[in-house]
User: Fold these one by one.
Assistant:
Number 1:
Amino acid sequence: MKKIYYTLSFIVTLTSIKVYSQQIKNYTYQDGLADNDVSSIVIDYYGNKWFGTYFGGISKFDNKNWNTYNTSNVGIPDNNIQTLVIDKNENLWAGSIPYGLFSFKNNQVQTYNSEIDIYNKGVGEIYKSKDNSLWFATSFDGILKFDGNKWVKFDTISALLNNEFFSITEDSVGNMWFGSNGNLLKFDGKKVVKYTTKEGLPSDDIRCLATDLDGKIWIGTSLGLSFFDGVKFTNYSISNGLSDNWINTIKIDKYNRKWVGTHNGGICILENQQWRYINTNQGLPSNSVHAIAFDNRNYVWVGTENGVSTFENFEATADITTLNTSDIFSIYPNPAQNFIQLKGSFLEGEIIIYNSIGNKILEKRITDSNEIIDISNFTSGMYTVSLIKEEKYETLKFIKE
């Protein structure tokens, strides 16, 4: 996906620390990665990991050895790789900006720019639909489709032709959804339905799309996250859970958790309406996350602007429940200057305080129902207090003046 960003400020609300126990392994250029700035990840039928990079071409990792494929050694047309997909015949397809599209197998490169006239236009995403057709989101030539035999260019449908497209997904009934820099489109094969901020989206700049296991469409924009249940949009931003509003990628794991890669806030994970976070504090090489993938060993692979991370996915946490905050604890005064007082009828467990960028400021065990904490050395700003008791947790915010 084309890298165009704006600087955004954010506040992090942390609700769980269980994910932080995962051991993170990082790989960079020094380990064999073609380039540290990773745009895309795809895992083939044999478990090999393929990484598209913005400046170094493509890397393959077989869990032991690294191989690089670029313009110099195998003659791919461009080292600026935006997107990767494996088709049903085990060909690796790659989209680049600005030099279009190619496929790759057994060190043989096949280009398609002359057939579909997208040279110097670029492909930002390739998506494999349920019928194994490939769909292409282009920068300046709309939406294309290849069913394995013929190419289809939707040049008679203006909505599919005129926009700069970034993302594609397919819903549970076969509708195709396309995200552009101007709107979200649903296409049933004949007609197009358009969605914008007028219908409830947080932004018309759609950066990424995903379909969850319940058939809901998740939309990442430059101003937050949204999901569409077929009737209405529900939005998330830094005010209700996200660590950053600019969304680069969304992936759904086998537990139906939503993994949201952000431009400047690491990964936000949504499960049962509770948020978890992984960022540089837990070991990621960068908080700018461009790609996420899951392998068949239940490991997560993350592509960032400073290398690749991998760690074991954590089990589903349906047993984790949320404490009733009003019954458990409260913070007084709020705003506060030198001290905060935690009061509750059953205030017992581990207290962790985070600042507005997710750094852990204080951690302690409490057993008293009337705990006083010295915050005189805290800088002014918003803080989050997390109370973890056995397998339950809750958070409250306070402001240090």
Number 2:
Amino acid sequence: MMKQYLLLGALITGGCAETVEAAQTLYVANTLSSAPGLVYPIPTATNIPSTGISVADMPARIAITPDGSRAYVVSPVSGVVTPITIATNSPGSPITVGPFPQGIVITADGSTAYVVHAGTPASISSINLATNTVGATTPLTGYEVTLGILAISGSMLYIPVGTPSSPFFVLAVTIAGPTPVIEAAIPVGNTPIGIAVTPDGTTAYVANGGDNTLTPINLATNSPGLAIFAGLFPRTVAITPDGTQAYVTDAASSLAIISTATNTFTGSIPLPGFIPQDLVITADGKMAYVSVTGATNGILAIDLVTQTVVATIVPVTPANFNLSLALTPASAQPASPVPTAVTGLLQKNVFLNVTERVLTITWQPSIQQGVLFYRIYNGTNIIGTVMADQPLSFITRVNRAMVAQGFSVTAVTAAGQGVPIPVPISS
């Protein structure tokens, strides 16, 4: 029997919470909330919202660091990004990023957030997450963002955009260098909105709201595949952790299911009375959370095994609309410490007709606390150590064989050594 009851400022309808197994927390941005804006944390073990977290007005997209320690919330009207400490659900000082920020993603090492801004043209800004300081803004000349959803894979950003003359693309933007650079404008369908990348990083799927399709993109070649039917006005995309299925929200009160093996529409989960908006999938692949409007403005918890709605979660006040969702990593533990912004500069010095090569390696501190010192490796050999409280640079003479072996930097704490970060070398 379905139950409905009011608890902790939320209306919960549905079955037992025990069907939700992943140890994660859902963060929900209420786009219509203001003075203050509100973000609701919802543990997936209970499906019961905690008290709303105060952020800047009308919060939109949310990104969470890979170690699950912080969330970053974009507020387009205020032009800021608000950091939230997840352990305490407490907001930090808003970070001013410039006009009309729309979407946000965070790099796999947790060092940098990239924010896409609406405008003519659209633009990208970056945030150093060790210091919460903003870098330079890079214009995307000739392009305008659609909804501001973007994806990241390795050193590439993927941004759905339009142009004043109406053609639509996904921009492939490299962030490997000091300034983002557009590598390709990949043609897709009409009005691309949502985008998601498969866990193996080989394919992106783009929801084209204007022509009811999903476009697969081969990320090795930046080439689009044949369009896939994905329901009426598809909006957002999420891919299962095993990479076998893509789920797409559509305006036909359903969740479309796409096989990534065959790139075909295989069916849908009906959501009668609701219009789905945003979508996330738990780390175990068993549950989806979908924000909805319609009969109720809130969130549906959907069992993907049985393809049934098991709970409806509705924060009571204020009115909910266009709720944006993000999930913490499963059973998030502090990530191993890593240096950030690692660079290497190779120079030639000539003295008395003798040429020597000198490599200067620099980096920024690890976001994680407790680093004692940093080790510098050439291949598997330790060639230097720099204490954490000293200037973070290392200079060494090198030869061609050493350069061929490669260099890396690791952070060391009392608990041990973190993951080695390769040194990209320029000259």
